[in-house]
Amino acid sequence: MERNYRKLWWQHCLAIICFSVIPLLFVNFFFYTLFDRIYTEKIKENLRSSAENQRDSIDLFFNERIAQLFTVANTNTFEELTNETYLNKVFDIMHAKSNSYMDIGIIDNEGNHVSYVGPYYSLLKAVNYKNEPWFNAVKANGIYISDIFKGYRKAPHCIIAVMVREKSTSWILRVTINLKNIDDIVQKAWLGHFSDAFLINKANQLQTRPRFGGDFLETPSLPEFTTASLNRPTYPDFSSIVVTKVERRVLHGTDAFYAATPISNTKWVLVIKESPEELLTPLQKGKYWAIFLTTLGLAIIATGAALFTNALINRIKETDRENAANADMLLQANKMIALSKMAAGIAHEVNNPLAAIAEKAGWMKDLLAEEDLAASKNFAEFDESVDKIEQHVDRARKIIHNLLGFARRMEPAKEKISVNNLLEETTGFLENEAKYVNIGFTKQYAENVPVITSDLSQIQQVVLNLLNNAIDAIDHDGTITVSTRYSEKTDEVEIAIADTGKGISENELNKIFDPFFTTKEVGKGTGLGLSISYSIIEKLGGKIRVQSKVGEGTVFTILLPKQ
Amino acid sequence: MDTLRVLIVDDEDDFRETIVKRLNARKILAEGAASGILALEVLATKDFDVIVLDVKMPGMDGIETLRHIKKLKPEIEVIMLTGHASVEFGLKGMQLGAFDYVMKPAPLNELLDTIGQAYNKKRGIVL
């Protein structure tokens, strides 16, 4: 049963990311929206106060002008002011500290322009204003501020007229406002690079020149940056508002803040337009930061999730491997139990007949020795046959003994073993197999190795295991060197099995004799081979050692006592 | 010196009879018994120096028989014979007072050695 670790990895990783990212995005979105709303409110508030400040400036300007005109009108008599030399003097005084006025004129009750000082003398001196709308308005109200109009001089201008009652008659003092003054005030509202401000009258006609196109008395239109349409889109009409109004509107694809506020003296409306790109720069920056930080957060979460998941999957893999090894071990143990039961059964069933055969043969031998059969011509044959029977019974007995030994790990047998022969025989099992993968055996047997007393089959098992490991470590193309040595000092025989394989890291070297430690794939090795080898050699009174260098190879050394 | 008397207890007829014959041929007074119960019956009437007792027998097994023998005649030395090649049974027998155990099939010489040692022990001869 192989898990799909890749799928598991993705599932786990995505789950972590989802559960972290959703709240992150939610929080970010919430705060951004909140920030956006507060910031927009703040901008609107600023725009409102800026608009109202400009309005107050304009009101103040007109109030001062009116006050000055009243002063002039009431401190001079009609007689005095009809004298144009005198009027010129008065105008000079009025003009001394400011250039608010363009010209000044005195008009009598009948509309006759009785005196005039200003640049349009020839054009205006002979004019009678009796039929002009403003003439009647000033007669009705006593004071009049005009919209921008062209009048007789055919140029846009704005006048202020005050009526003065003197005895039984009345006359009018009229001045023309230098429009530059109003422009100056209005232009103070051109804050940003794309902002605009201008005045309109009740008929939605321009009273000042906007920054981006349009002229006096035209309908205010939006600045046109494309040539797509010939008709420039008009501004929203704020001409009828009575209180300050601030709003954000998208008009003809242009997003803008508009502030409009009525001016009390003149019945005009001040309109300010601000480009959100400029006003909202900090918000835009905030947006970029939010995106950047969110991205960074996502990256951190993704990295963290990946790392965490990696660790987790590795743990799971390890656990799976351990489980597989445990399952292997259980299987092995069950096999052992079954085998040992069978071996015990066989031992009993076979040993009894064997014992009978042995005794019969022994009896025959006894008889052969006793009687004069020695003289028989076939005596030698009988004798040899009986010997052979005994020999083979002994052989069968050993086989059963070994079978039990394998199954039960009984007390080690005590046999006389020639170590060199044992190695020769054992390598013989594997030489052919090794040849296919181009692994050669080099044998360096010492001559002076004595016959030792130990358990042949168990030593063989260990040697076989080590040789198999060596072949696995080399994989292909290499040499296995099997050598023996006898140390008289310690009375020990040393068997060394050296391979030219990939070697074992220092880290793993400490663990290789641990049960269930394996570097082979899950299911390929039980990790028991070396631990069993170790316990066998220990039981035989010997030692097993390992030396290894990564990339160069590994040497296993078995030390066996002579006895 | 008295003749050494040995009782062979084994359910395997061929084995028992042959070994009795072979022991007799070596001037040892050997007799056979095919089961634990028969062995106890024989013991009731005769004396032996050494008993060779198979561990695994039908009916009363070797361990059980050993208990009875040790109760009946504790001076007799018993050698356990095990076809099981199992050390446990041999050791258990020795705990119960058996002299030694011999693995079946054992060469006669080995068995004779052990019988000799048991006999010597019984006679109080320490080698």
The number of E-state strands of chain B comes to: 5
* CATH T-level topology of the domain at 1-47 in chain B: Rossmann fold
Strand order of the largest sheet of chain A: 2-1-5-4-3
Give start-end ranges of low-pLDDT stretches of chain B: none
What's the CATH H-level superfamily name of the domain at 1-47 in chain B?
Response regulator
CATH architecture of the domain at 1-47 in chain B: 3-Layer(aba) Sandwich
Order of helices and strands of chain B: EHEHEHEHEH
Helix content of chain A: 40-55%
User: How would the global form of chain B be characterised?
Assistant: globular
Report helical residue fraction of chain B: 40-55%
The overall number of domains of chain A is 4
Strand content of chain B: 15-25%
- Rounded to an integer in angstroms, the radius of gyration calculated over CA atoms of chain B is 13 Å
Supply the helix-strand structural class of chain B: alpha/beta
Radius of gyration of chain A, in Å, reads 59 Å
The CATH topology of the largest domain in chain A turns out to be Heat Shock Protein 90
How would the global form of chain A be characterised? Answer: rod-shaped
Helix count of chain A equals 13
Count of helical regions of chain B? 5
Largest sheet of chain B: 5 strands, parallel
Provide a descriptive summary of the structure in words.
The complex is a heterodimer of chains A (563) and B (127). With 563 residues, chain A is an alpha+beta fold. Chain A folds into four domains: 5-61 and 189-223 and 232-279, Beta-Lactamase (2-Layer Sandwich); 76-180, Beta-Lactamase (2-Layer Sandwich); 318-408, Helix Hairpins; 415-561, 2-Layer Sandwich (Heat Shock Protein 90), CATH 3.30.565.10. Chain A is 51% helix and 20% strand. Chain A is built from 13 helices and 16 strands. In chain A, the strands form four sheets. Chain A has a five-stranded antiparallel β-sheet, with helices on both faces. In chain A, helix 1 packs antiparallel against helix 8 (281-370) and helix 10 packs parallel to helix 11 (456-474). Chain A is rod-shaped. The model of chain A has no long low-confidence stretch (mean pLDDT 84). Chain B has 127 residues and is α/β, with parallel strands linked by helices. Chain B has five helices and five strands; from the N terminus they run βαβαβαβαβα. A five-stranded parallel β-sheet of chain B has the order 2-1-3-4-5, with helices on both faces. In chain B, strand 4, helix 4 (87-95) and strand 5 (100-103) form a beta-alpha-beta unit. The two termini of chain B are 17 Å apart. In chain B, 46% of the residues are buried. The A-B interface holds A 344, 347-348, 351-352, 354-360, 362-363, 366, 370, 390, 393-394, 397, 400-401, 404, 408, 410-411 and B 12, 14-15, 18-19, 21-22, 25, 56, 83-87, 104-108.
